[in-house]
């Protein structure tokens, strides 16, 4: 083992990593000047787009977490998922009966879907 104390080893390690004659405040000031130069080159007029994209991503992540918690809570009760599945089947059956029984109703549904597609996609 070495006879030098751990504190003296730390001091010698800090001095070896720093360039000769520079203190921590000098290195911090150099770093800040380099950071300011790099930030000065950024086109801040485009940052609105990036901010919106980051916000949308954050909202999607939070929504996914909330949905997972709700689904896990629903699945915790043994009978509730089966009842919700049955409710879904009843609602789809009722909608199908109301909107798909005659050719006129089917054509109307098809026209609505095509209009929505044209409005939002085209």
Quick recap of the structure?
This protein has 122 residues and is mostly helical.
Polypeptide structure, described:
The chain has 3 domains: 6-40, no CATH class; 46-76; 79-122. It contains 5 helices and no strands. It has helices at 6-17, 24-40, 47-76, 80-99, 103-120. It starts with 5 loop residues before the first helix and ends with a helix.
Count of DSSP helices? 5
Counting DSSP E segments of at least 2 residues, the number of strands comes to 0
Largest sheet: none
Radius of gyration from the alpha-carbon trace, in angstroms? 32 Å
- Percent helix among the residues? over 70%
Order of helices and strands: HHHHH
Q: Which of globular, elongated, flat, extended, rod-shaped describes the shape?
A: elongated
Q: What is the arithmetic mean of pLDDT?
A: 82
Structural class: mainly alpha
